[in-house]
Amino acid sequence: MTSATPPVLRLADVSHTYSGQRRKTTVLKSIDYSFERGTFYTILGPSGSGKTTLLSLASGLDTPTKGTISFDGQDLTKLGFGRYRNKHAATIFQQYNLLTYMTALQNVICAMEITGAKPATGSRKAHASHLLEQIGLDKTMTTRSVMQLSGGQQQRVAIARALACDVDILFADEPTGNLDEDTAQGIIDTFRELAHEQGKCVVVVTHSQQLAAQSDRILNLRKGKLTEQVNT
Ligand SMILES: Nc1ncnc2c1ncn2[C@@H]1O[C@H](COP(=O)(O)OP(=O)(O)O)[C@@H](O)[C@H]1O
Ligand SMILES: [Mg+2]
């Protein structure tokens, strides 16, 4: 019998509890789920249901109170959280967290320097420039302070920055929340391409049904449980 390739990301019996001064809040309850490469996932759920918590655990920013998270079959505690975040998983935060005193280009280069990412050919600058262009920002925009870019353009910089490190998994927390419909659609198209043409695993938390409808798999987070929505 041959063993199947492990999923790119696996959550096994994952629970998470926040300990407040007075009481404990269990946000996630024994979640089991496997995420695959080449697939675009969306996670829906009411506000406060634990979506951001789930992303921070899956992206190695926090550790679950119980259970294990593994990348390509390797437990994150063994692989190392720093290594996982640098080489394998990138997160686009709800607030883009761009360095506002830098240009778009500098933001992307800076991320590559911090994570030690080196392009296969050419300089970091050339690679950053290429990524920004690919995602729809031309030179006049990339050499401007990010403060002078629109919300949609800043979102693109955040995506290019996440991609610069050539990760396997891309997480995004409500990435289209502040964008108009056309701009949001452009971002959704980019996520689909990343999954379907570049084989990335893309996991997006959203409130948007429009976005969810275009993903390959829709997950619902409710009362601490993650379930897959079956389209009939
Ligand atoms: N650092 C924290 N300490 C204590 N409670 C928290 C913390 N972060 C989130 N929570 C609580 O956990 C629940 C889920 O929060 P969150 O993951 O942000 O939900 P969502 O992203 O779905 O809105 C909420 O009740 C929130 O108040
Ligand atoms: Mg949230």
TrEMBL record:
Domain of life, source organism: Bacteria
Keyword terms: ATP-binding, Nucleotide-binding, Transport
Gene Ontology MF: a single term: ATP binding
One Pfam family it belongs to: ABC_tran
PROSITE patterns linked to this entry: ABC_TRANSPORTER_1, ABC_TRANSPORTER_2
InterPro entries: AAA+_ATPase, ABC_transporter-like_ATP-bd, ABC_transporter-like_CS, ABC_transpr_LolD-like, MacB-like_ATP-bd, P-loop_NTPase
Record-annotated ABC transporter domain positions: 9-232
Membership in a protein family: Belongs to the ABC transporter superfamily.
Protein name, UniProt field: ABC transport system ATP-binding protein
Organism encoding this protein: Streptomyces pseudovenezuelae
Taxonomic lineage of the native organism: Bacteria, Bacillati, Actinomycetota, Actinomycetes, Kitasatosporales
